[in-house]
């Protein structure tokens, strides 16, 4: 029993570390995209974790990713940290609800998570700026949700095909 718990903790730590590296790598890449638009590479790990372990574990990995990467980049408790939290929290809640009430394919849930991630970020920015004008920017970000959600979902599917669920339990 103890061996199984230790193994799960090790895999969760490894997946958290991968998510942190992906998040920080994507942040370091200066892609020619509109502000706030990203590929969402760390979300690949969120999709893998929810499939392998479940909702609670996905929340844990996402929490560690946001906190640790913000500490490492010096943005902890700053506006970018809260914007990131808004996106991660809303997309994680959407994934939790979807996991509980539907059996949609991974690509569909990934697209929906991307949509909610963008909505969460824009809501936090609107709050921080005390301005509703930023809400019109949601359409720019939502346009990216479909291709990025498809990409994240496809990569997550490929990873899940290559790992045996039993070895992660």
UniProtKB/TrEMBL annotation:
It holds the Pfam family Hpre_diP_synt_I. Keywords: Membrane, Transmembrane, Transmembrane helix. It comes from the Bacteria. The chain crosses the membrane at residues 37-54, 81-98, 110-129, 135-160. This is Heptaprenyl diphosphate synthase. The keyword Transmembrane helix applies. The keyword S-adenosyl-L-methionine does not apply.
């Amino acid at each position: 029993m103890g061996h199984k718990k230790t193994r799960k903790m090790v895999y969760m730590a490894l997946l958290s570390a991968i998510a942190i590296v992906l998040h920080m790598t994507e942040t370091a890449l200066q892609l020619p995209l509109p502000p706030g638009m990203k590929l969402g590479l760390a979300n690949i790990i969120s999709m893998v974790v929810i499939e392998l372990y479940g909702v609670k574990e996905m929340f844990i990995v996402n929490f560690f990713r946001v906190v640790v990467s913000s500490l490492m980049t010096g943005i902890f408790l700053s506006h970018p940290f809260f914007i990131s939290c808004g996106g991660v929290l809303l997309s994680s809640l959407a994934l939790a609800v979807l996991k509980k009430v539907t059996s949609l394919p991974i690509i569909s849930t990934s697209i929906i998570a991307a949509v909610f991630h963008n909505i969460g970020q824009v809501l936090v920015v609107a709050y921080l700026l005390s301005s509703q004008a930023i809400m019109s920017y949601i359409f720019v970000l939502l346009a990216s949700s479909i291709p990025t959600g498809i990409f994240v979902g496809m990569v997550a599917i490929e990873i899940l095909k290559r790992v045996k669920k039993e070895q992660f339990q």
